[in-house]
């Protein structure tokens, strides 16, 4: 039998040598055993983790720690086998405790008594009491308590399936100190998490997490040392880029880590498909048993989430699940909560919207794709995903070249079957490579080669719409002529191909834009000029591919504006406005009105930077008009904020033009707009706009702006600061209440002329001293 699945068969010293990552947990649990009270109040534990996570090994390490230390004088460990299929009554449970205790200690007297009571007592109620009495009697004679180490304790409780027996077990465990129970389970099971059950909230729960990158390396290293692999550091060094992907695929599950690491280190890339299929076959019993543990309703929900995982590549909402599995929303929510608690799925909140539910284990999604994919492409997609994650691009390219040579050699030798097999591998390898993925010439070449070879798998591949849309009209016509496609299929494929060309252009444009953004994020002073030039080159290529790409127009316009190229920025904003106006007015994309208004606002800023203030005001007015006329159904929380920002931008321009009465009106309107949505993030901006009206030590312009009872009241700190600066009367500061004084002092700092900055610390120090402050 495999040691991978049966750690109890591994020698004790080997288990100790290869045990990693959980030493602190072992120490904590051993400390709990050591500090258990005499009498009632013993703390019992449950360790929860998926299969392969190391629960059995952990229980073995606890056993060794008790056997090999001072605890052996007061405690006797008794370990149950991983599967206890012979326990269906509480009497069975206590009989097994007594039997394992007798076997582990070599107590023949106890063995004889067990045989005797099994014959004498036939009723469950009688037998469990007598069997438990034997365990208590053993403790009295030997001066030791028993620590029970029970694998799959959840399965035992499910087999017993008796509320009465569960209550009896709780009574013994809670009120007596003969035994301590440390169990393991694959999930946080119903018998201990359901408040209506006798064992609810009775155990302390430990959840085992998967290994992270560093622990995976340590784990693999100690396993390699145990197996005598002398050059493992080299193997690890060569494969280190894959460790993170390995952790992702396996969720840090030690058993799966070993299995998958063996695949990626001992298989050629072209052999990975078979090796991974073998791996997935091996874990099928584990995944099937995990799914089959579920009741019909949650199993149906999990099945739907898993299928959507590889069809949509994203999670699904409770509403969608409810509709598809035909359950009431409240039933669906309850089942989703249970599945999440049990570790099958996890919830992800996206932008404050309803939760999206996804599988918690990537391998379940991959397994579903392999077993339930309807087309060859669906069944293969998991493999493409794995290849992308595990292998560097250079390795994939080298393998593609090797396959091409092998294909040509097989073709020249007339080995058609072998050439077909290599051709199939070339296809899925190409789908994992960015330069081939989506490239029409490459897929047309594959189809042409398949037609020459009369490949049996070509018809199956042509069921894949992802392949068909990457073929030209000419190639699709050829396939129809040769009988691979019907006329209807050909027409549909041509429409998909045209749409693909359009979306590919947009995709490639976005890729260039994102490449530019990435360079901006990673700017270094040493090569700043060259890097900025590269950013601009990416933006230019993106707009060559798609001149109407709004994201790129906006990004390039901002790029120009940031580096003082305002005329170039205006050209891009004008193009952005043109595209947006077409979308809003002709295509009725009303949700884009906010973007259109912001574009006018940006144009106003660029014109103002060029000194064209009157033109800037016109653009700001256009933006404000759009905000004011936006239908309520298309308004978002951003609109009042952007409207206020535009008003403040316009105010700054009007201050330059000395139109202070208009500024006063705009400030008042901006304040009211922000008050409606209780938004305060622009308060400092309003403050700066008002202060910008001061020229030198002449603050009269600010007084002109802050006319009217409401503005005078709201901006009292600014006006008081001006009064102080104009009169030098420190009493104006001294008599202020504490909550206002700090704001006024801040306004003084901002307004004070540069030549007076040195005097301010004296004022603050003096006024604080009068108040007895430090």
Distance between the termini: 77 Å
Overall pLDDT level: 79
Helix content: 55-70%
Give the spatial strand order of the biggest sheet.
2-3-4-1-5
Beta-strand percentage range: under 5%
Category from helices, strands and their pairing: mainly alpha
Cα-based radius of gyration, to the nearest Å = 37 Å
Low-confidence stretches: 753-774
Name the assembly state. single chain
What sort of overall outline do the alpha carbons produce when their principal axes are compared?
extended
| Main sheet attributes: strand count, strand direction, barrel closure | 5 strands, parallel
**Number of helical segments?**
39
Number of strands: 7
Give a written overview of the molecule.
- The structure is a single chain.
- The protein is mainly α and 774 residues long.
- It contains 39 helices and seven strands.
- Strands 2-3-4-1-5 form a five-stranded parallel beta sheet, with helices on both faces. It has a two-stranded antiparallel sheet with strand order 6-7.
- Strand 6 and strand 7 (355-359) form a beta hairpin.
- Helix 12 (254-266) runs antiparallel to helix 13 and helix 31 (638-656) runs parallel beside helix 33 (683-691).
- It is extended, with a radius of gyration of 37 Å.
- The termini are far apart.
- 33% of the residues are buried.
- Mean pLDDT is 79; it is low at 753-774.
